[in-house]
Amino acid sequence: MRMANPYATEAGVGGVVNQRKAKVTIEVGKTDYSLLKDFVDEESNTSVETYLNTINVGNIDVRNVMHHEPSSIYRYFDPYSNANLMSAEFGYESYNTQTVFYMLPVYADVLRSSLLETNDRVRRSNHTYHIAGDRIRFLPQPAVNTTVWIEYTAKSDPFNPDFAVDSGDPSVNGINSVHNIPFTDIKYENCNAAGKSWIRQYCLSVSMEMLGRIRRKFSSIPIPNGEIQLDGDQLIQEAIERQTRLKEELKEELRELNNVELMQRQADMAEAMQRQIQLVPQHSPILMLG
Is residue 175 a contact partner of residue 186, using CB atoms and an 8 Å limit? Predict the structure, then answer.
C-alpha cells in the first residue's frame, strides 16, 4: 500500500497528499502569473508560497485549472426542458397517452454526463494555459477580469523516508522483502522479525563452532580419580550442519521470492479464483414494472 500511494496520487484515485484550491484574478492585458506568489490558497487565505513554507515544501503539482464552476449537472437536468416547461408554465400535471418513455441503462446517463463535462472543459473556455516552473501563462489576453482557480497538491518525494513516516507507516526504514534490501551494511534494528530470527540462529551456530574449537584443544580435563571428555568435535560438526541448513533455507526463500515465482504464484491464484467463480450460480436479472 505504501508503494502504491504515490501512483494513486498521480492517477487521482487516492494517495497520501491533500488536494487544495487556490485562486487568482487575471487582469485585462496581463497573461503571466506566478503560481506561488500570485495565487491565494483558499483555506489559509495566504499565498501558496506562504502555505508551502509552513509545511516545508518547495513546490506544487497543479492538478486542474478552471475559471468557472462545473454546470453539467444543471444542464443535464435542464429546468427549461419541454416537459418541465409544460408542467410549470401550462399547469400540466400528467402526460397524454401518446407520450413514449424509453428505459435506458444507467451507463447511458453516466456517458452523457461525462460528455457534458468534457464539453465544459474543452468548448466553453476561450482561453488556454501553459505551465513552466512556477509560472503560468494564459492565452489569449483576457478582455475582462476573471477569477481562475487551480487544484493543486504539495509536491513530496515518495522515496523520502520522512514522507512515509508522515503517512503513518514507519516500516519504510525496515527490510521486509528482497526488493528493498540495500547494497550497504544492514543494521540489526532495521531488519524485520524473520530476519532477526535468522540472524540469531546463525549467531548461535557460529558461537557453537567457536566453543567447539576451544574445547577441541583440550579433549580431556583430568580430575581426581578420572578425567572429563569434552565434546569439541561434536559441537563443531553440529554447528557446521546448522550453518549449512540455515544457508540452504535462505537460498530457497530467496529463490521463491524472485519475480518469476511471484508472478507464477499470482497467476495460479487468479486461475483458482476463476474456477471458483464458475461454481457460483448465475441468476438472470428480473425486471419488475409497477
Answer: yes
Q: What are the residues whose beta carbons fall under 8 Å from the beta carbon of 138, sequence distance 6 or more?
A: 26, 31, 33, 127, 128, 129, 148
Sign of CA dihedral 81, 87, 93, 98: negative
- Each residue's pLDDT expressed in tens, for the chain with a length of 290 residues: 766 776 777 777 777 677 889 999 999 889 999 999 999 998 889 999 998 888 888 788 888 888 765 555 545 445 445 555 445 555 555 555 455 556 778 888 788 777 777 776 666 667 788 998 889 998 888 888 888 989 888 876 555 544 544 455 555 556 666 666 667 777 888 888 888 999 999 999 999 999 998 888 887 778 888 788 888 888 999 999 999 999 999 888 878 877 788 888 888 898 988 888 888 776 544 444 44
Query: Could you tell me the three cell numbers for 103?
Result: 428505459
Can you give the pTM of this predicted structure? Answer: 0.44
Which grid cell sits at 233? 568435535
d(CA 100, CA 17): 49
As a residue count, the chain comes to 290
DSSP-based helix, strand, coil % in the chain, nearest 5: 45, 15, 40
